[in-house]
Amino acid sequence: MRKVYTLLILGIWVAVLPYLGFPYSWKDVLTTLSGLGLIYISYTLYKESKVKENNEEKTFDNFSENNFFNREEIKKEI
Predict the structure, then answer these.
(1) 7, 37 in Cβ contact below 8 A?
(2) What is the pLDDT of residue 32?
(3) 0.70 cut: is pTM over it?
(4) Residue 70 lies in a domain
(5) What are the pLDDT tens digits along the chain (78 aa)?
(6) Which distant-in-sequence residues (6+ apart) come within 8 Å of 6 by Cβ?
(7) How far is CA 77 from its chain centroid?
(8) Residue 45 resides in a domain
(9) Residue 68: predicted pLDDT
């Protein structure tokens, strides 16, 4: 949850950054660092989601009939 919150704050920072009045050289550096931060946090969240997805037990709704009954039980039913 902390990474998601950080991602939100970093996104807001990138949206507001052009209007803060930094000199062009600072603005370029800050935009680049912010973009790299967004990439890193997004990648770690992606990796975590893949690990959680692979650890989940998958169940399938497949049904099949089993025809290997004991012949004596079949004769008793008839």
Answers:
(1) no
(2) 92
(3) no
(4) no
(5) 788 888 888 889 999 998 999 899 999 999 999 999 999 998 998 888 887 767 666 666 666 565 555 555 555 655
(6) 41
(7) 54
(8) yes
(9) 58
HSE-up (13 A, CA, CB side) for residue 49: 9
Instruction: Count Cβ atoms below 10 Å from residue 10 Cβ, excluding itself.
Output: 17
- pLDDT for the residue numbered 3: 81
Q: Which among 31, 28, 36 is positioned nearest to 13, based on CA atoms?
A: 31
Residues 30/13, Cβ–Cβ less than 8 Å: no
Q: Which amino acid is at 75?
A: K
Spatial neighbors of 11 by CB under 8 A, at least 6 apart, are: 38
Spell out the residues 6+ positions from residue 4 whose beta carbon is closer than 8 angstroms to its own: 45
Extract the tokens encoding 34.
């912010």
Question: Does residue 77 lie within any of the structural domains?
Answer: no
CA distance 58 to 34: 38
Residue 21 lies in a domain: yes
